[in-house]
Amino acid sequence: MRRTLLTLLLVATTLSVCAQQRVSVDVKTVQVAEGKRVTTERSIYLTEDGRLISEQHRPVHLVSLANSIGEMRIYDPAKNEVAMVSDKELASGKDMVAVFAWGTYGDMGLPSYGFTQSDVRYEEGLTIKTFTPKSRTNISQVELVFQNHLPICMIYYDSKYQPLRKVYFSNYKHERISMPLRITEVEYSSPRDSVVRLSTYTNLLTGGAATSPMFDYKIPADAKRTSVNLNQLVGK
Fold it and tell me: What is the pLDDT of residue 20?
């Protein structure tokens, strides 16, 4: 019993430390859909207080600032325009960098999307957790697969229990945080077509090593207000 309590205390302490440190990383995402290839490059800065600053370098230069409750400001430096949106799906804690930096990958944030864990099983060294939705949705369940206590795959199933989306996590880096440096997503848009995204993470820095001035980035006070398509932003 004492050992169990000590283990829980150590885990809680580790997560607390992760949540309080700053993290910076560069991300390159290549998406292939309908024969078209789109490449996006950005740098992500996660602060100690949960703010997420994302500077997109390609295809266009944009800077977005998001907080933990989903309030986001998107700034276009070339036009000196800023758009303000609010949606829980834009919360900083839902970004993959935050999920692994804060150690919340045990459920990959699925409860915040309305899922509850309904089963867990063990197969050949793997732990497989099953999550089901609390209300009716086009997703019947999500399987989250772990190896050595780290997620390696997440599969979304439709109402007929056919895969809708698969996410693979690989090339983990183990230092102050355990984070996959390669994330591959496959979305089955139709029986004969799919969308594939490959995100590679480089220059991962944590704690005192993360010193970019972007952590303190501020949008100019004279930036003009504009609008943004929220559905495109959250992928709806």
Answer: 60
